[in-house]
Every structure is written in C-alpha cells, then in structure tokens.
Amino acid sequence: MELGNASNITCTNLYDHRDTARVLIPLVYIVVFIVGFLGNALALHVIRPNLKKMNSTTLYSTNLVVSDILFTLSLPLRIVYYANGFHWGMGEALCKITGLIFYINTYAGVNFMTCLSVDRFIAVVLPLRFSRFRKVHNVKYICVVVWLVVLAQTLPLLSMPMTNKEPSGHVTCMEYPNFEKVDNLPVMLIGGVFLGYVIPVMTILICYSVLCWKLHFAAKKNHLTEKSGRSKKAIGVICCVIVVFVVCFSPYHINILQYMVKKLRYTPDCTELQAFQVSLHATVCLMNLNSCLDPFIYFFACKGYKRKILKMMRRQVSASFSSVVRTSPEGSSRDIDAHKIHLNGARSQY
C-alpha cells in the first residue's frame, strides 16, 4: 500500500508525542497491572471454592478472570517499551508473542462478558426454553469455542510484521503504521470491529436492557422484593457493567472504524495519520482500564468477593494496631481491650 511505504519514509512526525507518552502511558499501565492483577487474582481466589459446585455463571466468570490476569501479565514488557520512548529492543518474536497475548485476552474478555450477559438473559427471561445452554457440559463447549474464535481472529497477526525500524533509530512494536503494508487492511479492520465490538456491544445492550425491564416490573408486582432493594441493586450493577464496557471499548473501536472508512475513500496525509496514531495510544489506554475496573464491579456484585476484601482489611487494621501497641511504651491493656470490642462490633455488622 502506497501510504504504508510513504509513512515510513516521509511521515517523521508519527511519534512526536514520545516525551509525553513515555511518562503518561507507563503510569496508566502500571496502575492497570497492579490493580488488575491483584483484583482479578483475588476474584479467582474467591471463585475457586465454588468450582466444586460449578454452574454456567461460575464458568464464564472464571474464564473472564483468567483472561484479565493473562492480559495484565503482558503489560510489563509494554511498560518498558513505552518508557523507552516507543523503542522495542527484544526482537520480533517476543513482540509478536506479547501482541498475541494482548489481543487474545482483550477480545476473550469481551466475548466472555457477552456470554455472561446472554447467560443472565436466559436465566431470567427464557429459563425454560433455552435452559440447555446453561447446563455445565454445554457451557464448557461454549467456552472452548470462544477461545478458538478469538485465536482465529488474532493468529493472522503472526503473518504480519509487528516491528519496524524508524528513521530516528527507534524500533517500534505493535504500532498501527507497522501494519499499513498489509493488503486489504481497512476491510480486515472494519470486519474486526464488527466481530469484536459491534456485535458484542449490541448483544450486551439488548440482553441487559430486557433484563432491567424484567427486574423492574417484577419488583413492581412484588412489594417485598421492591422494599428489599435487591432489584434496584441488580439494575445498578447491570448499568455499571454497561457503562464500563461502552466507555472503555467504544472510543478505540470508533476511532479505528472512522479512520479505516477514510482510507477506503482517499489516502490520508501525514497529519491525519499522526493524529490517528496519538488517538490510538489514548484510546488503547482507556480500553485496557477495563481489566482493572472489573474487580470493582465484582466488589459490588459478588458478596463473597466483598466479604473477602473487608475481612482482609480488618486483618490488616488489626495487625497494624497490634504492631503499634507492641512498639509503643504507652500502650495499655485498656487500649487493647477497647480495640477488641471495636473489632467485634465491626464484625457483627457484616
């Protein structure tokens, strides 16, 4: 493609934001790595005891958590890459491996979130007609199919050049201009946007909208349910999931879509390509925030997850207090007794 070749020769402004990016992007990814890894590891720890009484929701949730954890494990090398000012010094093979892990687990997460929305929809709206799709042995096959579909979507990356040496001497990895030489790239990416974003987001919106409507009218008919506030909490969690999904994934995919449509109509110049490159870095960061926002959704949606975190926090407070008492000459048995009473009172509230 002419622009692909031209961009490497004439477009010298594609990484002019290097100095800003080498600070901001690593900071974002460090937060995503720490919060995403620890939060999802805790979620896996909470889910693990329930694996003995496996159901469809547990299976989909486990796969979603695993995909988030694997995704965060691909971030340290990306952090080094961005901190070096878009310079990859670890070779083409490792760039492809990290790129595959990055995209496989991004879209595995999207697909398992979609599966969870369909699962909840069937459980509440169509529990009899499609109950077979919620049987554990069928859900296992669905999970395998999801991973295979994601692999089929991302494995073609192995045949594409992932690194490129820039005129400045920097070797870039997994950057959009490195793919511009690929034939029919706009058509491929537009198809990828529809498969990886448009279809999942429409499915999630339809399923959860109907689910909210069903819960709302069920609560209106049953005053006890309405007074308990359970339906409002469920609707709140659903709205939170929708907002997080749309806010995190929409800017990136809309950005890709609009630029690919431009490329089908005409050849964008270097200024447009540079603007697209900067916007990609910003929207990819936003998309990746999803993996560290999921644990916050688990906190409000999952009683076991919330209980585990609160228990850990109480232990930490208790350990910190005990340490202070041991090291303070003024610590008294009265203080310790008062602390025990406070902890017991707090424990009885949960």
UniProtKB/TrEMBL annotation:
This is G-protein coupled receptors family 1 profile domain-containing protein. CDD domains: 7tmA_EBI2. Belongs to the G-protein coupled receptor 1 family. It comes from Synaphobranchus kaupii (Kaup's arrowtooth eel). The keyword Cell membrane applies. InterPro entries: GP183-like, GPCR_Rhodpsn, GPCR_Rhodpsn_7TM. It is a multi-pass membrane protein. Its main location: membrane. One of its GO terms (cellular component) is plasma membrane. Keywords: Adaptive immunity, Cell membrane, Disulfide bond, G-protein coupled receptor, Immunity, Membrane, Receptor, Transducer, Transmembrane, Transmembrane helix. One of its GO terms (biological process) is adaptive immune response.
